[in-house]
Design goal:
heterodimer; A: mainly alpha; two-stranded antiparallel sheet; B: mainly alpha; ABC transporter involved in vitamin B12 uptake, BtuC; 2 strands
Chain lengths: 346, 371
Amino acid sequence: MQMTSSVARPSAARIPWLSLGVWGALAILVLIAYARAPQATTAVLTSTIRQSTPIILGAMAGIMCERSGVINIGIEGMMLIAAFLGYLANVWTGNLLLATAGALLVGGAVGAFHALMSITLKVDQIIAGTVINILAVGFTGYFYQQGLTTRGKLAPIDIAPLSSIPIIGPVFFNNPPITYASLVLIVVIHVLLFRTAWGLRTRAVGEHPAAADTVGIAVNRVRYINVIIGGMLAGLAGGFLTLEAVGSFERNMTNGRGFVSLAVMIFGKWTPFGAWGGSLLFGFANAMQSQIQFLQNQLPPWLAWVSQTPPQFIGMLPYLLTIAVLAGFVGRARPPAAIGKVYEKE
Amino acid sequence: MERAAPQPPSRVDLLAYGRAVLRAALIPAAAIVVALSIGAVIIAISGANPLVAYGALFEGGLGSGRALSRTLEKATPLIFGGLAVALAFKCGLFNIGAQGQLLLGAIFAGYVGFAIQGLPAIVHIPLALLIGALMGALWAAIAGALKAFTGAHEVITTIMLNFVAFNLTDWLADGPWKDRSPGNIVARTPAVAPEARLPDIAGVPLGIILAVLAALAVWWLIWRTTIGFELRTVGQNASAARYAGISVRRMTLLALILSGFLAGIGGAIETLGVVGRFQPGFNAGLGFNAITIALLARTNPIAVIPASLLIGVMQAGASRMQFNSGAASEIIDVIQALILFFVAADSMIRWVLRVRAEEGERVTLSSGWGS
């Protein structure tokens, strides 16, 4: 019974009334806020989308790996290495698109290393991810040189008629390329996972590899491909940090985003749209934080306590939120059944 | 089943015991050699001379009396961190949060150290150590309770708690517990009272003595007590343990509390024995070092000591290496990651050395996210 229920696992078919209701209520709140403070509201929403970009890309990296049965806690390290080498590529070539492609490839290469460890060498997958995380900190720290001249960053692209729609326009249609790419990828990966034969194979391998093997699916090949694609998504997230958000590299600049991504993945029940919801929550928390700091002296009296809160407490919020999200949702979400286990033919 | 930790001889055959120890050390030793070789290649690529670099590294860690005491100083928190991770491993838990638990232990030991004046050392030192240890235990207990009652995976919660601990201690050291003496502008607590500083006993720092005692105590707990047996049973097969009437929840909580207790003492010793006060940003990589050490020691508490000394030598010698050869000190992080890789991916080394794997030797952690 375990088997039948797990293969027929509900994907995204039912209408999620609860989340529709939550999003509807949020939309109304946004409209009220916009009516009272249009500029600040637009600023917060724009920043929400951008702050959530690396998180959703990281979460989709996790989804790709885990749907095929491989745990990846090395997303943090994959992001960091790709952010670093993508930045170096930009410094050397001065070509941002080439540098972005570089970050993508580096991510894929580190993904292949994770696949090699956890599939071929049968290293415990949690330890394999830890190897990548430590290696990333050491490698980027060792080769990092201060004083490299930055060569700019990816600029927003205005999609002309659409960007003049109030609220939605500036928020969705005036973004830099990697942010657009992440929004498109949410749809693409959703369709791939739930509407294609390849997606079905991926999920079968993640739920019941022996059964998948019986019907002729090359279990380990599917896993390799998925983990490499996952690495590329993490690499894109890293590229976002150096090539789109900041324009330069700093030591340990990922700051736990890879782990936040994993929590978001669980929150979204291993679906791209669910994870997007979680990422927006984090993006919003970060956006509010910077907006409050920006407007420190203009806050209304009932918000005065916010500006007196020590910055360290505001800095804790994303991490506390991650813990809360994880504790609240992990029990209700069921991970792919074969996760973490090496597949060996009997 | 448990071949990873060779049992001490009951009566006879010390020779066979020695041979078992050597055999158990073979893979880690080979992993270290291979990792150092790859590290040498990376140093050469970056334009420095690997022989000069490694020469300076070991000279800076072992070359003189001062170098040796610096190595012991570095190794002390590493032993506690390594024990913390190894103990949790035995229960099937991956505590990446030794870092945060150490920070909490360090700052609270520092607080007890400076806030109370005039206590005799014989009371003040144990009190400060105990408070530090308890705060580390409390911090780990959060992750333990989340795991036991909600199923939230400790890998994510302990990492997140590291970031929270970093912010919390930074606030304490820059706010309520800041050193207000004239001339101080940085975030740090006042110096601890002289009576709270750890003394040397017969020339050996008290900290390293406590670390060795802790290793023995953990060994005894794991292999000679009922609790240890129950921890190991849960670690090897949680459902079998449940069937045998062991509370998996209780053991999960207990393992993380003990783990955090150890990391907390490590932090307390760092404050009371080495730094003399709490300063944010110290020992930044301890959580990851501790993982390397625990796996290099194959989760054997006694073997944690030599593993920590090795990493301690590298840390103590890193600045001399950077000075003499120009190879940045971060290379030791790369070498550590490589050691971890070759210890974990031991099938390659086994193949080269023609050593067969033994049953029950592997650590299994990745059994999924929830419950």
